[in-house]
Each structure stands twice: as structure tokens, then as C-alpha cells.
Amino acid sequence: MAEEEGTWLSPESFKKLQAELEEMTTVKRAEIAEKIEAARSEGDLRENGGYQAAREEQSKLEGRIAELRHLLETAKVSEPPSADEVAAGTIVTAKIAGDTERFLIASREVLNLVDDLEVYPENAPMGKAIIGLKPGESTSFKAPNGKNIDVEIVKIEAFEG
Q1: Hey, which of 21, 44, 156, 159 would disulfide with 80, CB 3.0 to 4.6 Å?
Q2: Average model confidence (pLDDT) for the chain?
Q3: Domain 8-77 class?
Q4: Which H/E stretch holds residue 156?
Q5: Per-domain residue ranges for the chain?
Q6: What backbone torsions phi and psi does residue 159 show, to the nearest 5 degrees?
């Protein structure tokens, strides 16, 4: 199996995700531990909905912590690339199957850090197809549903987030 490439993150995005991880491993873990302990003190755990809910919340939290740790350990952190060609960390305006869309090529983790943009991963079918293209260039890619979709790059901007 090929080694997975790290996801591009801007230094600001990296810091925000580090802060989220820190909050989860300190504050959130302690809150959930208190909920579990309080529910345990109520008695029979088999019929204790509060206990089951707290354990489920703990499981989701631990999954997110593991996901964030992996992302932060493998991330490629750098300033946004220039806007000369489509790359991770660029905002792209493109005609996709005839419709004009503006989006960011980056990790889905960045989605929580941007308000007004769709985020498409560089390793998704469209991301792979358009990486390296310049304004005026076009290509097509096969969508997960099997359809070929045409894409023309209209404009590229550096991401400032």
C-alpha cells in the first residue's frame, strides 16, 4: 500500500486544529469523565441511558482526537502556494459541467475554518484532475457515480486563511 501523503494546512489552520485538539484532550475529556462517573453512581449500568449516552460521547471524542492527531502529525504545513496553478491551498473558480463554482482545494478539516467556501480535497477525483492546471486549461474526471465531468479553470487565488 502506498504511503499516504500529508494534507496541506496553512500555519493558521494548523494552530486552530492544535487548539481544538488541546481543548478535547483536556477540557472535553474531563467533562465526559464527570458525566460517566455521575451516571455510574446512579446504579445499574445496563438500564442507565445517561451512562450509555456519555460512553457514546466519549467514543466519538476519542475518535476525533485520534483523527486530529493523525492529521496534525502528517500535515504539510506551509504558507499558501502562489496562484499560478491549482494546488492544495488555492481558491479556484472553475466551470464544472457548465456551472461556475468557487472553492478551496484543501483538507476537509479546513472546512470548519472557512465560512463561505466549499472545500474539495486534493486527493478527491476532481482535486487530482485539476492539480497543476492553470487558468484557461480544462480537463475532465470520472465522478464516483461513473459520469465524466468537464472542468475548466477560470481563476486561481491564494488562500489567506
Answers
A1: 159
A2: 85
A3: mainly alpha
A4: strand 148-158
A5: 8-77, 90-158
A6: -80, 130
